[in-house]
Specification:
The complex is a heterodimer of chains A (175) and B (198). In chain A, strands 1, 3, 4, 7, 8 and 9 form a six-stranded antiparallel beta sheet that branches. A five-stranded mixed beta sheet of chain A has the order 5-6-2-10-11, covered by helices on one side. Chain A is globular and about 50 Å long. With 175 residues, chain A is an alpha+beta fold. Chain A has one domain. Chain A has three helices and eleven strands; from the N terminus they run βαββββββββββαα. In chain B, the strands form two sheets. In chain B, strands 2, 3, 4, 6, 7 and 11 form a six-stranded mixed beta sheet that branches. In chain B, strands 1, 5, 8, 9 and 10 form a five-stranded mixed beta sheet that branches. Chain B has one domain. Chain B has 198 residues and is mainly β. Chain B has two helices and eleven strands; from the N terminus they run H-E-E-E-E-E-E-E-E-E-H-E-E. Classes of the chains: A alpha+beta (175), B mainly beta (198). At the A-B interface, loops of A face strand 7 of B.
Chain lengths: 175, 198
Amino acid sequence: MLKLIPIAASALLLAACGGLSKQMEEPKDSDRSLVYGYVDMEDGPCPLDWFNMKQVLPKVEEPYWGFRTADGAFYAEYIPLGSFQLWSFGGAKTFGNTFWTFKFPQQLPGLRIEKPGLYFVGSFRMKDEGNFFKSKYDIDLADKPTEREVIEKILPYAKGTEWDDWLRRRLKELK
Amino acid sequence: MKALPTALLCLLGISCMSAKRREVGAPSELRSGEVLLIGRIKLTPPIEKNEQTISGLYPNWRGKVLLLLADEYRPIQSPVSNSDYRGRIEAPAEGEFSVAVPAASLVILGGVVPLTYVGQLHDEAFLPGGFRVELRPDDVAVYIGTIHYTRDEFWQIKDVEVEDDYDRVHADCLQRWGPDAPLRKALVARSQLENRRR
């Protein structure tokens, strides 16, 4: 269990994270990686609408990287070399106009990207641990969906880019 | 008018947070039944400014490691309760802490580095503990060493060592307290398996 920290979503955060299309683009340079994963929000209060990582090394002025999301999958094909922490994710509940944001604790193993490529950071599953009086959510690592299943979810959005070839090669490796 | 409720909240918060160990500079400042405890917490790499988001009630916690103490070892539970913080040592990033403690042996349960303390949003990094501090009835001032934690960029603790800076610290005490500085060296040792929160 990762002991998520629920926080009130701010308009600033939403503005920073929202608005990414599902369609991937060609890499801007040869050092970019495609990072992907999945959050099962079935027991969560909202769908997965945004996901963020924070770059901790090398230090940069704008360390937060927003991800594209599609049907629980999160992915970003523009991640540079460096060290990254899973930072936050959330979504908007249609009825009630409620925004939910959850923050990962900072003392967690992170992702080190030392060479460009594909990086699967895992599948997670939201857990509802609240009751009638108080909502409480947490998250666990999950076996499903597998990396293969996550790639199949994001593959349509790689069409027309070199990421399509990368992902298809990875699918062959996973067979 | 908005300032008044905020001020009240601040006062309530401060009054609810249990007291830290009293910082003292010399044995002459000790009260009856107290011992002066000197030591240092060192982090490599040190805490960087942009790793902490601290506001409101806890501005003094920036850059500090909070050492949680108890009579006997027990794992630190998350979330850290107010009672766990009672009698904590607020160790500065640079240099030694110097605090008054009751004249009885104690255990350093572990360290807490506040990373995010904004309103109800709290996130910390935990440093393993289980260090026993053995005090003698005739102790006045005791040096416990430098507990040196080596970590990575994700706050994963890679190494813990107790380093001996007694000669330097003792020389400083001699200069400040005079030639009869009764500083006993009693380096801490790990008495328990490291406590893990997660």
